[in-house]
Amino acid sequence: MRQTDKESGIVNDANDWVTETVGNPRYPLELFRRVITVSLETMKIVGSLPGLELWA
Question: What average pLDDT does range 24-38 have in this prediction?
């Protein structure tokens, strides 16, 4: 979402920020894909753990 501050005229655009600071316009998508991968791997690990027995 691109927003311009009325008083200062400063434009706030996340896409411009990524291109200027990271140098890779695909960074947000790549980061999102990494988060999904970590989440899926975590689910696999948790699913492979043995059940927890609690004494009542």
Answer: 93
DSSP 21-41: HTS-TTHHHHHHHHHHHHHHH
pTM for this structure?
0.61
Task: Give a yes or no: residue 50 inside a domain.
Answer: no
* Nearest Cα residue to 1 out of 18, 19, 13, 11: 13
Residue 3 and residue 14: Cα distance in Å, rounded? 10
Residue 26 domain boundaries: 1-33
| Count of the separate structural domains present in the chain | 1
In a domain, 54, yes or no: no
CA gap 24, 3 in Å, rounded: 21
**Arithmetic mean of pLDDT over the chain:** 89
